Fold each of these.
Amino acid sequence: MMAKMKKVREVLRYEVFDLKTGKVLKRGRYELHSFTRNFYRFMYSRHLAQQTVSLVRTNGSSWSLSISSGYSPAIKAPAKDDTYGMVVGTGTTAESFDDYKLEAKIPHGEGDNQLYYDGQTASATEDETNNKHIITEERNFYNYGSVDITINEIGLILRFYYKFLLFRSVLSTPITVPAGTGVRITMEITIPYS
């Protein structure tokens, strides 16, 4: 009997912590729901290996993606790189299926109104007991500046020769990252089956 697909679930968890002591100051959790057209087109092209699809790059221009092009996709960005992987911003405009970038990305850096982007980790597991696949993305962001920073939006950018926004969500309640603290953001995508 063929497995029946259930609803994909996207959860974001965060911990704000003191940079000197590591003590967790605040925790939170959100249900997310904002894959973009780029995500669906990318998945479509991966499924049909020779299929070419048009994706919108983070600079707004279009690019025809062909899986046979020989490029390898990457989502785990290294430290100091805010051009792909998990990214954060201050934008508050509601999500759109056609989003191709964050509204107002917070840049990497160690000054005021910047966050230090740590290296990203990613894992994928299968929970056969509970019939689900779990994809986990995690990244730390540090506020070395002298002013608090408010995160209103979260994105996930794929590097596949160019960069493409796969996911953007505006948080129902912003995450405040005070000066001298960091925030660990974990995005978990659960794909259940039965």
Amino acid sequence: MSRLLTICCLIGFAFAVPRSATAMVRIAAVEEADQIRDLRMSNGIAYAARYQDGISLVDVSDPTAPFLLSTLDTPGAAWGLDVSNGFAYVADDDKGLRVIDVSDPLAPREVGSFDTADVAIAVDVVGNLAFVADRFSGLQVIDVSDPAVPTLVGSLDTPGTALDVEVVDGVAYVADGNRGISVIDVSNPASPAIVETGAPSGTAKGIAVVDDVIFVASGESGLSIMHRSSPPWPRPYRVVDTTGDAASVVVADGLAYVADSRQGLKVIDVSDPTEPVPLGELGAPYVVYATAVDDGIDSPSWTCRFPIDRSSSVRSPDSAAGCSTSKSSMASPTSQAPARSGASPSSMFRIRSIPSSGAGSTPTTSGRSTSSGRLPTRLAALGACV
């Protein structure tokens, strides 16, 4: 079972769990700065790109007590990041690619950098290569086999504005702004070549590739779903209007999680990509820009209700408080989370529940019902803009 985190623009990590397809609940938070733009999860740690405030590392191994481990300011503005083999690779705006040693999550440190041609927006690391979406300069391919000395291997100026990239089977799929997506052969990384371009509805801002399907966060047009054929000419399947400004998308277990900016998080059943079905949302006041999935954690769903008091890190329930799982009733946790050496317990909120409107199963035109069984164990939202 997957665990999913979602980023909002203000105040840190807040875990939400689905109680039904149309009701999700926030159960915990850790205070953070605003302008969080990207997220990765690995081995119980969430790595957040915080725009002008660099990166944050948060312990999310206990979903009821996310815990800020460390922060590191970068010289630019951290738009995106990827994590691989103990290093975080940060797309740092006009400061290019920054390589951060995160082998000690309490003490991240920069070990190398590469100044890309324009503005680094997103990065996907595959093996010893970092593929950077570099805005007006398109795709930059950087050798990071020596993290201290990243070296440019190849580059290709795409037709549009490179905002995101995902590499699958020697092919880079670039979300290329108002020019749609660019499909690039990178089997020879020194000489990348455009194979084809596709034009999903709207402005391509984020991209995810799963099996033979391409999912594109298409701004105000919502989620575009396209077929990845062989040769990889993208063909349109469907477009789902998410009502907001779709900024990024993550797909896991047949579900697409769309970061819909000021319209929050949208959950869409894409198990049949030709017939996507909206399941639910975590809407206002959340402003959601990015999501990430950690597939390695399996635990029962949590439902908790606590008041929030930012003046104290101690969590104590009110008269309506309580926690339960989908498998058994749980006693309300009242003790403070254990301190990690070097970490900051003062960054924690108390836990509360924030259900969205609606509950229960909702019939759909396809005959499928949006039952809670379709949703993953946990969702997470980072903060709320009110």
Amino acid sequence: MPDGLSLEGFEKRFPRGSEGWEHFSTMAVFWETAGSLMRRGLLHEEIAFDTFMDAPPWGKIERIIHDRRKREKAPAEGENFEWISKRARTWVKKREAAIRREVASAQPRAWIDPPHGRYCFTAATTTLLAPNDFVIRFVLSEDDFAK
């Protein structure tokens, strides 16, 4: 489904009762429920966003929901979905910043003893930021240099 699809365009493409309509409804109900539970403290934000819920597809349906709010005169339509999406974006930004700070402050050291004297330097480190803020870190240790 393209971003920015209007309600009219959505209903033409996926009429009520179609498989596409049912998929949309299921997804929207899931995120609306998750947002409602999280707002009331019944779903822990840190656990939810750190596992799989860090990217609600709000951008895909935002216009559809706003159009429904106007047409149905229902200002609360999708409010929890919109709320959880904003919270997720904020959480991801904070989490990525924390990871970058942690990586930047890590100073693993390696010692080598070549014939000309002992040297200490920051060990070679490679860090990959993978989806969902999972950090994969490879550090060459003193033992690696000894081999």
Amino acid sequence: MLRPGPVSSPALHRLSIAEIILRDQEARDWFTNLHETVLEVAPRRHTTKEERIKIAVLDTGVQQETFENWLQQRQIRNRVSYTSFVNGDSGYPPCDDADHGTHIAALLLRTAPNADVLIARVANGTSIEAADSITKVRRFHGLRTPA
């Protein structure tokens, strides 16, 4: 199962334990419904790497532990990639200073099972460091410009 790291939010700290458990169960129910009613009946398209839709996540990166976990999962490892355009960042090991990119990528991997998720770290958690990151990501992944 895809699970991002722990969530730390001021809004969550104001909720009671019962409210957090209820919200967690509602999210689990939503994903169960998505998988049982939508994804099970949706036609399987774009199954080869060349045909799959590419979704680029230009964000704060991805947590190293989460990314390495995804690489161990057979159904995911060929659908996810990571690179960094933050100055001074070698790109490995992956990192995510704010956890936002990790959560977005996890959500996409769960809801778009026939898409490739290209994670590009363009922000250090407080600011965008790669202003021309869209062009860099397109070039890096060999994506064509839309007509």
